[in-house]
Specification:
It contains six helices and ten strands. With about 230 residues, the chain is α/β, with parallel strands linked by helices. The protein has three domains: about 55 residues, no CATH class; about 40 residues, no CATH class; about 100 residues, Metalloproteases ("zincins"), catalytic domain (Zincin-like). The radius of gyration is 21 Å and the shape is flat.
Length: about 230
Amino acid sequence: MIAPMTTPKIHKLIRSKRRTIALEITEEATLVVRAPKRAPLEFIEQFVQDKMWWINKHLQSAKEKQQKAGPKQFINGEEFLFLGNKYELIVTEKGPARLSFDGTFQLLSKKLDKARDLFAKWYKKQAEYKLQERAVYYSEVSGLKYGKIKLNSAKKRWGSCTPQGNLNFCWRLIMAPLSVIDYVVVHELSHLAHRNHSRRFWKKVEEILPCYKTQRKWLKENGYMLSW
């Protein structure tokens, strides 16, 4: 006998001036409901009830992604992402550095207790160089001038543009394909011209990066893999 589905729990309810109800399943497998300010709670709950099959389907998908992106073990043969490709980790007794990369990642066994920090430091160094490089390139292509670039460890946002024209990026982006990194860079550069997500904004993004929708889709579907 198949057990009946239960009504999903609303983890967060956001009210605004919007006219319709929207549902969002987060990477953490939680349900966020966005609703009009004056929408009765009973109406919102009924809407969620009516969408129960869709919600449970996507909640299950989010949970499966969480399991796939489980914590790293730092063992021989484990794979680590870099610029969209997977590279094997070799734990070795001797090596040129505590952590090195040359087609494979090589980690000194005596530094296993610091493996997570060593990888994070290596990723951040690569991200700093690559994001600077791509920002300079697309700034010249578009004519959009930014201030400074800073890296952060944000879990919700891949990038942001400050009112002062500075760009912020999550260092974990360095695990994504270069084309996806380019999309995030162009996205934030375009905010220098349009501070919202209006049609003019997306037109600017497309003007600079015609195939941005493909990269945007990749990030939406695979962003969970860039976990740390």
